[in-house]
Write a structure and sequence with these properties.
The structure holds two protein chains of two kinds.
Chain A (H helix, E strand, L loop, with lengths): L1 H16 L4 H36 L8 H35 L8 H12 L3 E8 L2 E8 L4 E8 L5 H8 L3 E4 L7 H8 L4 E9 L2 E9 L6 H40 L3 E5 L5 E4 L1 H7 L3 H4 L11 E2 L20 E5 L5 E12 L5 E10 L1 H26 L3 E5 L5 E4 L1 H7 L17 H15 L8 E6 L5 E11 L7 E8 L1 H21 L4 H15 L4 E7 L6 E5 L8 H5 L8 H9 L3 E3 L12 H6 L4 E8 L6 E9 L7 H32 L9 H18 L2 E9 L2 H8 L1 H18 L5 E6 L2 E9 L2 H13 L5 E3 L2 E3 L3 E8 L6 H17 L5 E3 L2 H23 L6
Chain B lengths: L18 H24 L8 H14 L3 E6 L2 E6 L1 H11 L2 H18 L4 H25 L10 H11 L1
Antiparallel strand pairs in B: 1-2
Helix pairs in contact in B: 1-4, 1-5, 2-3, 2-4, 4-5, 5-6
The chains are: A alpha+beta, B mainly alpha.
């Protein structure tokens, strides 16, 4: 009855405490109580009857009643503990197994918690994980059966939060002696007991695993729970790793599928195992077409040299994989791809996979070819501009220089870009700037014409350079944005033209037989005009070739050139003397330091001469030095190549002028003198007679002409030869020159005839006295080697005065007188008179008549 | 019988116990007292045991409240206290009112030591007092004579029935 009353009371209280139908209550009680009621009742009754018997035997035995109860209690407890441990172990295995079933262990958390709950025979098992500031709570309940999960704010004060803060496995009970915040929270949430263990990943607490509501959680169970917490922590970590791996895999898959690069993979035997969409797009082959084939054979890969690429043997150590491959599309079109080959080794180091990453560079190659063509073209044009002798400058609308080609620097001597930014009109000669502005304005206004225009441009050294420019308005061209001046340097041409003109002028002077001094003066001025700051002198070597004489020095006479440069020819005689001595150009860049000037340095410096360049004037045959051409400067200076050439040219021109003058003089001499004796000839003599006769009008004196003829000279020629005759004639000419007065003229008239013109003759006696003296010169014998020859002369004398007398008449008269002397036996002196002329005329007339009579046969022998 | 504390398995009520539970507790206590009085005055009397005997059983019952036999039933573990094992001789030796009183005091002490919720503890005390009273009534009704004579098999049978 006791047990029945208890059951009844229990049913009643359950029914009263919980609003459930009585049937359900009875069902629950039956399931719970009946087995226990029977077993427990049997045990209690057995022990109860045993105790009653013992008490009846002796009441003192009651004191020992607790002994069997204690034994039963502790043995049962031990047995239960073992069973529980086994059950826990099995439960832990089941829980752990549950985590291992799905691929992602986190999916097994509900099953895991259910096993945990069963393992600890608790009502609730709960896993709380803190993720990104929120607590995710997974719960498995016994009543009502099921799983739930929810999200809590991490800062929310919950039991899970308290348990997490503990950071170690804990056992909490509302009835525990050590009631703390967790215990209070446990009570607040309506639980009795719980155990909890932190869930860690890599030593960091990320959550807590706990189970609630079973009276009497034991300390040892904490170890089990801690192990389960470690398992679930590892599972979460594994899940996260798996998720990360899957995400990476997804990412990689997406990258491979959506990348613009083309990715393929080949097995060690060259079999294509992967072929992404990119490859499909560029090659036209679908993955189904080529995956499984070997070595991309269908695409016929070839390298840039046209060799077939052997991808079947890519795993060979010696295999060389080309960086650029040509493949063929299904339609036969070629496609160029840039390849990056990655050999992926297996764990044992052997090749496992070949990853081919490539890009379609067909268009890129075409573009590169076009770019290269463009680049080459641009480089060519740049090189043309940069290396062109023409200067290219670009001007803005205001004339400011925005670009200047390298020729700008080369031509004008400016540093690179030194004038960029400056207005170009500031650099143009003031006389030309107006015209250039006008042309520039025309180009700006679109009225341009293609003809070039000339102007002078300021160089870095301050000189003006002659330029010819072609302008082109490219202001609208964004690549240029300015007016382009393409300039050609005409300076040298202008200078050459000027030099040619001056040279032509000098040659013209020479051709026109201008005086040598005038020619040399012009030449000196030409040099001075071409070489800035130059003062030029032409010095001629005298007959003795020891001194120099200034022939032309238009700007140096006043500064005492003679003393400055010295007139002596020698090895250290200034620039001029040394050049004449050495027969080569001498350049003194600084008089103050040149040893050639040690004798005349002070004098030269006192006259402001600091540099001197001297070129010898040498005959064309190179035999003789005629003089020197020297240029002086008032500052140390070295000649430029152009200036050196100018001096050479000037020296050559001077040589021409001097030699021509000498030649003319020689020709003139030869025309007026006898070649054998060197005496004036008939023409020259007649000219001298005319001059002398003209002078007699002022002096009121007479002139006398002595006509000399050697007696029997034919005999000498016939007997001793003409050479001996010539030697006698030369010797006689010298003797005659020695015996006549200064101013008298001795001439050879022809053959053995000589004439002498004597001026200032007072009368016949005076003339006869001269003739007598002249006649004496022949009395001395002429030496012809071993022989001596004696000759005599017949001299005819004719006197005249006044300008109206013909020179020829005077000579004829002297000739007539000479015939008279010959007629009278020779070696005589006869003065002409009119009877001589008459006789001569008669004789001539008779001679002519006889000649005609012979021709006509008028002679008769009587 | 199941453990008193687990007799109301499940979450503890969030608020106070329903008034009906308290009323049932009081009712059970009243039934216990009434049953004890009835058994003692109507169905005969026993020799009054000595107080040391009563105290001995009080101690034994208190200790028996802590003694639990754990066993596994199918896949579920369970436990059974051995309170009735001591209650059986107590009910056979002590007077009904003594039994009710001793059971009440022993359970109160035991529940108190186990920190059982007071309402539950009161219910458990009242429940066991009522059960002890019911058992005493049955025992008194079925045992041979007034119990003063030698123990017979009928007495033992009556005890088995009273306990069950």
């Amino acid at each position: 009855m006791t047990r029945a009353a208890n059951i009844l009371a229990l049913i009643l209280v359950i029914w009263l405490a919980e609003p459930h139908p009585i049937r359900r209550v009875l069902g629950g009680v039956r399931a719970l109580v009946v087995p226990v009621w029977i077993v427990g009742g049997a045990i209690n009754l057995a022990f109860g009857l045993l105790f009653v018997a013992a008490y009846l035997w002796t009441p003192l035995s009651a004191a020992l009643f607790l002994v069997p109860l204690a034994v039963l209690h502790w043995s049962g407890r031990a047995y239960a503990s073992i069973r529980t441990d086994r059950a826990r172990l099995a439960g832990m295995q089941r829980a752990t197994h549950a985590l291992g079933v799905p691929i992602d262990p986190r999916d097994a958390v509900p099953d895991f918690l259910a096993e945990v709950r069963r393992c600890f025979e608790s009502e609730v098992a709960e896993l709380v994980v803190v993720l990104e500031g929120r607590r995710v709570v997974h719960r498995s309940r016994e009543d009502p059966p099921g799983d739930e999960s929810r999200v809590e704010e991490a800062g929310q004060e919950t039991l899970a939060g308290e348990l997490m803060r503990a950071g170690r496995p804990v056992r909490v009970s509302v009835a525990g002696a050590a009631a703390g915040p967790a215990s209070a929270r446990l009570r607040e949430e309506g639980w009795r007991d719980c155990i909890a263990a932190p869930v860690r990943i890599e030593g960091k607490d990320i959550g807590v695993l706990c189970t609630y509501n079973r009276t009497g959680f034991e300390e040892g169970e904490l170890v089990v729970l801690e192990a389960l917490a470690a398992e679930v922590g590892a599972a979460i970590e594994k899940g996260e790793l798996l998720e990360a791996i899957l995400e990476e895999r997804t990412k990689l898959t997406e990258i491979v599928e959506h990348t613009s690069d083309r990715i393929a993979a080949l097995d060690p035997d060259g079999t294509l195992s992967s072929w992404n969409r990119g490859f499909e797009e560029i090659t036209g082959y679908q993955a189904a077409d080529v995956v499984g084939t070997r070595g991309l054979a269908r695409l016929r890969p070839r390298d840039v040299a046209g060799r077939e690429v052997q991808l079947e043997r890519w795993a060979d150590d010696q295999a060389v994989l080309p960086a650029v491959v040509e493949v063929l599309r299904p339609n036969g079109e070629a496609c160029w791809i840039a390849c990056s080959w990655t050999r992926v080794p297996a764990a044992d180091g052997r090749p496992r996979r070949l990853i081919l990453t490539s890009r379609d560079i067909t268009k890129e190659l075409e573009l590169k070819r076009a770019e290269k063509t463009l680049r080459d073209s641009a480089a060519r044009f740049r090189a043309l501009v940069q290396n062109s002798s023409h200067m290219v400058i670009v001007l803005d609308a205001g004339g400011g220089i925005t670009y200047a080609s390298p020729a700008f620097r080369r031509m004008l001597g400016y540093r690179e870009d030194a004038r960029v930014g400056q207005n170009v009109f500031e650099l143009i000669h003031p006389d030309d700037v107006h015209g250039v502005r006008a042309r520039f304005g025309e180009h700006l206004a679109g009225l341009a014409h293609s003809a070039g225009f000339e102007f002078r441009f300021l160089a870095a050294d301050g000189s003006w350079r002659h330029m010819e420019a072609l302008a082109n308005n490219l202001l609208d061209d964004p690549a240029v944005g300015g007016v382009v001046f393409n300039c050609r340097d005409l300076t040298e041409r202008k200078r050459a033209e000027a030099l040619l003109a001056e040279q032509a002028y000098v040659l013209d002077l020479i051709a026109r037989d201008a005086p040598l001094m005038e020619i040399l003066n012009v030449l000196a001025k030409v040099i001075e005009s071409e070489a800035s700051g130059a003062r030029c002198a032409v010095l001629l070597l005298d007959e003795g070739r020891e001194t120099l004489t200034v022939a032309a020095a238009p700007n140096l006479i006043d500064v005492g050139l003679h003393e400055a440069d010295g007139l002596v020819v020698g090895p250290e005689a200034g620039a001029s003397g040394t050049a004449a001595f050495r027969r080569e150009p001498v350049v003194t860049t600084d008089v103050a330091r040149d040893p050639l000037w040690h004798e005349s340095r002070q004098m030269a410096l006192a006259r402001g001469i600091r540099a001197a360049w001297s070129n010898p004037i040498i005959t064309a045959d190179g035999e003789r030095v005629l003089g020197v051409l020297t240029v002086y400067f008032d500052e140390p200076r070295r000649p430029s190549p152009a200036e050196s050439r100018l001096l050479e040219l000037a020296a050559h021109l001077a040589d021409i002028a001097i030699e021509r003058t000498h030649a003319q003089a020689q020709l003139a001499h030869q025309a007026a003198h006898d070649a054998l004796t060197g005496l004036p000839n008939r023409v020259f003599f007649l000219d001298r007679i005319a001059l002398a006769l003209a002078r007699t009008q002022r002096s009121r004196s007479s002139v006398a002409v002595l006509f000399l003829d050697l007696d029997r000279f034919k005999f000498i020629n016939d007997s001793l030869g003409h050479d001996a005759g010539d030697r006698i004639l030369r010797a006689l000419g010298k003797r005659l020159q020695e015996v006549v007065r200064p101013g008298d003229t001795v001439a050879r008239f022809g053959g053995d005839e000589f004439t002498i013109l004597c001026e200032g003759i007072a009368d016949e006696a005076h003339a006869l006295a001269i003739a007598e003296r002249v006649g004496q010169v022949a009395t001395a014998p002429f030496s012809l080697g071993d022989a001596e020859v004696f000759v005599t002369m017949s001299i005819g004398i004719a006197l005249a005065s006044g300008g109206r007398v013909r020179p020829e008449s005077l000579v004829e008269n002297a000739d007539a007188a000479m015939y008279r002397a010959k007629a009278r036996g020779g070696n005589r002196r006869e003065v002409f008179d009119q009877a001589m002329r008459a006789r001569a005329k008669r004789r001539l007339a008779m001679h002519s008549s006889l000649h005609r009579a012979v021709e006509r046969g008028e002679f008769r022998v009587l | 019988m199941g453990q008193p504390a687990e007799g109301t398995a499940g979450r503890a009520p969030d608020g106070a116990f329903p008034a009906l539970v308290l009323l049932l507790t009081v009712l059970l206590a009243a039934v216990a007292v009434a049953g004890g009085v009835l058994a003692e005055h109507r169905f005969g009397t026993l020799a009054v045991p000595s107080w040391p005997t009563a105290l001995l059983f009080l101690a034994l019952l208190t200790a028996a409240g802590f003694s639990i036999v754990r066993f596994q039933y199918r896949d579920q573990g369970d436990g059974e206290d051995l309170f009735e094992a001591v209650l059986t001789p107590a009910m056979f030796v002590l007077l009904p009112l003594q039994v009710v009183a001793v059971v009440g005091v022993a359970l109160a002490v035991s529940e108190g030591l186990q920190r059982i919720h007071p309402v539950k503890a009161c219910f458990n005390v009242a429940q066991w007092m009522a059960a002890a009273a019911a058992g005493s009534v049955v025992l008194a009704a079925l045992r041979d004579g007034d119990g003063a004579g030698p123990t017979s098999s009928r007495d033992l049978f009556a005890l088995v029935v009273a306990m069950w």
